[in-house]
Write a structure and sequence with these properties.
Strand order of the largest sheet: 2-6-7-3
Radius of gyration: 17 Å
Shape: globular
Number of strands: 8
Structural class: alpha+beta
Largest sheet: 4 strands, mixed
Order of helices and strands: EEHEEEEEHHHEHH
Distance between the termini: 30 Å
Length: 248
């Protein structure tokens, strides 16, 4: 997955009615979990194993990871800035993105963050991620999934700026999946990003790997959705942009 030069044409952000400010309260008690905790699982049977241009099939370096992650952050900032501007509002980018390697090294609202996780913390308006866990996922699944991971967490920051808060965690998480899909799909259509052969399969494989256990109640605190629900939400946003994400 690569970045191309040039700027995208801004599109409408439906339902942007509140001021662009960081909420004073903490989403989920100050900790907004990203993808499920635990070592990244090997994805189920890939749709196109052996695709020669998929980075997961070859050696991936930490330098490549850093470059892709920085690209994902920069493109997310540009994307949401333009979406807010199209609705007559000013976007305030997420304050910082923090890598960590040890449990409790970074805290959110007084709560230490666990290993093997990626989160958006509304208390400090930052994204934090276990760099070892993220690099492992990058190597197992591919670089395209890294853009999804960042897009999902960035979407939680946008939800805070829009004042969006649902009664159940799963609603918040599936909407963030949809918004991540829109961020990637819109940038592909605008030729800011290019998809390599196998990237769509990386998205599917990654979403299969992070879905909830099918036996987990949908209404349980921390539920993100089954693999099928998460995949459906992501590709709905990818194909139909933000209009599909219920922001209005």
């Amino acid at each position: 997955m690569g970045e191309q030069a040039g700027r995208r044409r801004p599109g409408p952000l439906a339902g942007l009615l509140v001021a662009v400010v960081v909420a004073a309260g903490c989403m989920g008690g100050g900790l907004d979990p990203g993808d499920p905790q635990g070592e990244p699982r090997q994805p189920r049977q890939p749709a196109s194993p052996g695709a020669p241009t998929t980075r997961a099939d070859g050696t991936t370096s930490v330098a490549e990871f850093k470059q892709d992650f920085n690209d994902a952050v920069g493109i997310a900032e540009q994307y949401w800035t333009e979406q807010f501007r199209a609705s007559g509002e000013r976007f305030q980018p997420i304050r910082r993105v923090v890598p960590y390697t040890r449990s409790g090294e970074v805290s959110c609202g007084g709560q230490g963050l666990p290993r093997n996780n990626a989160v958006y913390c509304s208390a400090g308006d930052f994204i934090a991620y276990d760099v070892n866990w993220s690099v492992s996922a990058f190597r197992q699944i591919g670089d395209a999934f890294l853009f999804y991971l960042l897009g999902h967490e960035y979407a939680h920051g946008v939800q805070v700026r829009l004042g969006i808060r649902y009664n159940f965690t799963i609603q918040q998480e599936l909407q963030a999946d949809c918004m991540a899909g829109a961020y990637i799909g819109d940038n592909v259509r605008a030729k800011v990003l290019t998809l390599d052969k196998g990237d769509l399969d990386e998205f599917r494989d990654g979403l299969l790997a992070v879905g909830d256990d099918p036996n987990q109640p949908w209404f349980a605190e921390g539920s993100h959705g089954t693999a099928e629900q998460r995949s459906d939400s992501f590709f709905r946003g990818y194909e139909n942009s933000l209009d599909a994400c219920g922001l209005g």
